[in-house]
Structures are given as C-alpha cells and as structure tokens.
Write a structure and sequence with these properties.
The protein is of the alpha+beta class.
C-alpha cells in the first residue's frame, strides 16, 4: 500500500454555518421531506415561543405561490436590531448567522421554549437559498437579506413611524441541499392546528397561495378539545364522558404540566407527547412518567375498591389498553436527544410527571365514581381477553410446540416463553457477538440466533438458492412461519425480530442483506411491524462519573460538545467498540438488549414510498450493476464517511 502523508494541512476547519451545509442531517435529521419541513417547524416554534411566554397572540404563515417558499410572522417583541455588546454586529444578524446564539439559554427572556440549542434560526438560514428577516420594533421596520447563511445587506431601516412590533421570516430552502423543496400543505395544516391546541390563547392564520385557501386556527378548549379531536379521528367510542384534564399543573415552581386522558374501545393505547409545544415522536422520560402514573393510580383504585376478580393478573398493558392521552410538559431546561427533539432525556421529568399525575388521577377517579367504575371494567375486560388469548394460543401451540422445537436450528439459543407477543429474536452477527448476547439477554423472553459466514443476497438469488442457504434457512426455521407464498403469520414464534449488527460499515452491509431477504421473501413481517434494527453504540464516553453512549461519530461529537459546554473542563475518555463481541454482556444488555434502556428502529414501508422502496432495492441489490455504478459515482464525495 502506498504511503500517504497526514499533516496539519489535511485538517479542515469549518467556519460559521459551513458545518450545517456540510452535514445537514446532524441538525435537521435528513434532507428528505421531514428535513425540509423541519426548517418550517423551527421558524414557527420560535414564533410560538413568543406566544407561550406571553409576548405574542397571533402567527401568520404564508405558503407562497411557488410552493417552495414560506413567510412566518408574529406580533411579538421583534428580534433586537441593536449591536450586540460583545460581537459588535446587529443582534438579528448574530442570531441568524451564528450557531448557539439566542435569548433562550436562560429564563430571563423565555421561561420555557422549544428551541434551547440556539441553532434553529441559523440552521434554517444556512440551508435556505434565500432568507429575508423583517423586524418591527421601537416604531420602525428593519430588514436584512441572506443567501445560504451569508448576509447580502446590512440591517436597513426600511420604514419609520410604524405601529406594532414583531418578526417576519421569509425563506426559500436550497434545492442543492434537499431532495425536493416542495412543501406539503396537509402536513403544514395539521402541524399548525396542533400548535393552537397546545397554546389555547394563540391564533394562527395559514394562507395557502398555491391553492388559494385560507385557514384560521384557534382552540380555546386547549388540550381537552385536542383530545376530543383525536378520539373522533380514531373513530372509536369513549367509555366515559368526563375527561381527565390537568391544566397548568405546577411541578416545582418553574416547570408546569398539561395532561388530558380518556379511555376508549380502541384495541391499543394512543399517546401524544410534547415538550414546550414540540412533538416528541419517540416519547422520553415524560411519557415514561405518565405511564407510571396511570399504572399506579389505576392499581390503587382497583385494589382500594377490591375490583379485580380472584386470580386475574392485571398488567400495565391492560390498564392502558384503549387509552388516548396527551401530555405537554413545559420545562425550563429540556434535554432532547438530538437537534430534531424527538425524545426527551431529562431524568427528573419522569418522577415530576409521575408523582403529579398519579395524585391528580387518583383524586379524579374517587371524585367520579361512575367514570372510575367504567375504566376499571375496561381494564378487567382487557386482562380477561389477554388471559383467554394466551390460554388459547398456549393450547394451540402445545400440540405442535415439541415437534416444532425439534426442527429449530442448533445455533439458536431459544427463550423459555411460548408466547410470541412476549418473545423476541435477536439475529446477531457472528458467534462472538452471539456469545455476549446470550449471556446478557433475558432468557425468558429473548432468543439469540448467531449468523456465521456471508449472508446471501436474496435479490439476486432464486427461491431454491434461498431455501438451500444455511444462514437464511436457520432464520426461517427459527421464526417458524415459513416464507414466500407459504408464509403464515399465525405461526410466527417471535413478534419482535431484531437485527443486531456491529455499528460499522460491515454491520450495515449485513443488515441490508437481511432486510433485502425479509423484503423479498417475508415482507408481511415488515408490514406487520415485527422487524426492528437494534442501535448498539459505537462509542463509550466517560466524563467524571458520567457515562454516555454514542451511536456514531456525529452522536459522539454532539455529546462531547454538550459536555464541554458545561464549562467544567472535565477529562473525557472515549472508547470505540470494534464490534459487539468485545462488549461485556452487562454493557450489551444495558445499551442494546434491555427494553427499558435500548434504542430500536422499527422497519416500515410508508404507503407513499412503496414504489421508491421497490426501485431502490432493485437498483442497489439487483443483478444490473449500472444503477449501482451511477449511485457510487454520485456519492463518491461521501467516501470519507466510510468506516474502513
């Protein structure tokens, strides 16, 4: 191999907003449709923060005729335009062109807000082909223009003697960054209306110039009205009329909480969680606190009134079956997992929410005896149905379980449970990782199947070759449901099939081959929501007595930045795992196996992307190499990201 030099000139330093344009996914989650709309949510959330803290009452959002540009304006205080005392440039320019700048790092200007990282507005600017900031304050109107994050003008006074105050942000996303710059009207409408449910004093006007429509959203009923809307959308019957609603519940003087709950005839729970008005799609500690509170309050009610029949076991899933709920937590200092704010990480939020909701819900049940009895009856029915279903399934399996177990692959370390709904299968890369997984697993509910050798590319193979391949045959035998046209989900032995691979390029390759196999020959497992990808950490980061786990390099850099921002000058030790096999079983359990602490990605195929999924798998995994060659040439610039 030829020797190459590695000197200081090889080190890149990205200035200003260059890091955002270089790695947009770190800041907005990706460059597809969700990432594009994340720009709009960032700007809208800044305006909502003004309203939440009592400085604004109305927000206007205009989707312009081109369908690619938006203006968001509010009647708040207006971004300051005077020169910043330390940086010597207009404050509005500083906020819109500098990462980690803003007025939300302490509670003097904003008691609670959705954007605490100080990167939202500047990220939108960096990823926009054009942005115009218009500010009304102190009796005048000011304007500044930007292109891809770079100011194109000074902060100019464009009008004098104007009334009112506020901020208007016009932006047009950069087509060089995004796969498409066309906004989804339906998505915008839904998101804006939710904002007004969560902020009952706020009015939002949405003008859709593409279709010539105007919408006004204002919901004085707040989350109670939102809950009724959600129940109507689900088209299910509520089992009680009196909603449980907790409004402006004070937690500890600064933080507050809003919760709305109603039990219905729905077959499963539907929880919608928010922090400072920001939807947390992956839940977090506030959702955990709500679930804990509901479980505790209902158990106390059932026990106090002796409502549970003898020998009937009531579990948490029975209690929450049919529950439709909303929790909106207002925190002074929320800690999110990633800039996209999909999951709340504050450890204290769980206990704060749990203790507050538990006491209020217990009181509510006792004050509304007919409602309490209706909910108790619903819970007991769910427990009885679960018991009957488990008993029937057990009887159906008992006649064939022994025979089926004789046909299981020898490398499979099976679990002791015979209930598919309680069983998980981890498909693991290699015997070494398989050994750690077997030691760290929950033997009652978690099975482990190690793979050895190369996985067959099912896209290029015939059905006969797939059936004769040892590794794929072992997977089919372990799952027990057959494949292809003979696949029968009722025979599936595990309702969670989890791909557990190393967090490197080889692991990603093996996972891709397995997903291709599932897509081609066992697709009902994917459409049924049974296939998941584990998220093992690539790095362990130790700072003082705290331990952090990073999924990849971007996650590692984010964690290190957050540690350094604490200002404590801590010694940071970083360990990179070469593979799952070198993890201690205890570590693997804590980070990847334990349902309470692990991170899983569910494999889904949205209805709107079925054709694209088919085309992608055919192009990248099929026999025709021309599509792969084109893909490689188009993405050759990303080769520095490969783990080699």
């Amino acid at each position: 191999m030829a020797q190459t030099t590695y000197t200081g000139k090889d080190i890149q330093v990205l200035e200003g907003l260059e890091p955002v344009r270089k790695r947009p996914g770190m800041y907005i989650g990706g460059t597809g449709k969700p990432g594009l709309h994340h720009l709009l949510w960032e700007v809208v959330d800044n305006a909502v923060d003004e309203a939440t803290n009592g400085y604004a009452s109305q927000i206007d959002v205009v989707l312009h005729e081109d369908g690619h540009s938006v203006t968001v304006s509010d009647n708040g205080r207006g971004i300051p335009v005077d020169d910043h005392p330390e940086k010597g440039i207009p404050t509005v320019e500083l906020i819109l062109t500098t990462l980690h700048s803003g007025g939300k790092f302490d509670s003097n200007n904003y008691i609670t807000s959705g954007g605490l990282h100080g990167v939202g507005a500047s990220v939108v600017n960096a990823l926009s082909e054009e942005m115009v900031a218009t500010v009304k304050r102190d009796g005048a109107e000011y304007e500044q223009r930007y292109a891809r994050g770079v100011p194109q003008s000074s902060v100019d006074k464009v009008q004098s003697s104007v009334r009112g105050s506020g901020t208007a942000i016009y932006f047009r996303p950069d087509p060089e960054i995004f796969e498409s710059v066309e906004f989804d009207v339906g998505w915008i409408k839904e998101n804006l209306e939710v904002k007004t449910y969560l902020n009952r004093d706020l009015k939002i006007i949405f003008k859709d110039e593409v279709n010539g429509e105007r919408y006004a959203y204002h919901h004085e009923g707040g989350i109670a009205e939102y809950l009724e809307h959600l129940v109507d959308e689900l088209q299910v019957s509520p089992i009680h009329e009196d909603l449980f609603v907790l409004r402006d519940g004070s937690l500890d003087g600064e933080n507050r909480l809003e919760v709305a709950l109603q039990w219905t005839e729905a077959p499963k729970e539907h929880l919608h969680t928010f922090v400072n008005g920001i939807p947390t799609q992956d839940g977090g500690t506030h959702e955990q606190g709500l679930k804990s509170a509901v479980r505790s309050a209902l158990r106390t009610y059932l026990d106090t009134h002796d409502l549970v029949p003898h020998r009937l076991d009531v579990v948490a899933d029975d209690i929450r079956e049919g529950l439709v709920g909303i929790v909106n937590l207002f925190l002074v200092d929320p800690q999110f997992q990633g800039q996209t704010k999909d999951k709340l990480n504050n450890p204290s939020a769980r206990s704060l929410v749990s203790s507050t909701v538990r006491l209020e819900l217990e009181q509510y049940l006792n004050d509304h005896p007919s409602t309490g009895e209706a909910i108790a009856t619903r819970v007991i029915q769910a427990a009885k149905a679960r018991r009957a279903s488990r008993s029937a399934a057990s009887r159906a399996r008992s006649s064939s379980s022994a025979k089926r177990r004789l046909n299981l692959p020898g490398k499979l370390a099976d679990c002791s449970s015979n209930s598919p709904s309680e069983s998980e299968l981890f498909i693991v890369e290699g015997d070494s990782a398989g050994g750690s997984a077997k030691q760290g697993r929950d033997r009652a509910h978690q099975a482990v199947l190690p793979l050895r050798g190369k996985v067959l590319n099912a896209e290029q193979a015939t059905l006969k070759r797939v059936q004769n391949n040892k590794e794929l045959s072992n997977i089919v035998q372990a799952l027990g449901c057959g494949l292809g046209d003979a696949l029968d989900l009722s025979q599936l032995r595990y309702q969670k099939v989890i791909l557990l691979m190393d967090a490197d390029s080889d692991g990603h390759h093996i996972a891709t081959l397995l997903l291709t196999f599932f897509y081609r020959y066992m697709r009902p497992l994917i459409t049924g929501g049974f296939v998941y990808i584990a998220q093992p950490p690539l790095y362990r980061i130790d700072a003082a007595k705290e331990t952090y786990w990073a999924l990849d390099d971007a996650d590692k850099d984010r964690i290190i930045d957050e540690i350094k921002q604490d200002g404590r000058n801590l010694k940071i030790d970083i360990q990179r795992f070469k593979g799952l096999g070198e993890m201690m079983p205890k570590t693997l359990k804590e980070t990847t196996l334990d349902p309470q602490t692990r991170r899983l990605l569910e494999v889904t195929i949205p209805d709107t992307e079925r054709y694209q999924t088919e085309e992608t798998i055919s192009d990248l995994m099929g026999r025709d190499t021309s599509a792969r060659f084109e893909f490689i040439m188009n993405h050759a610039g990303d080769v520095e990201e490969l783990d080699v």
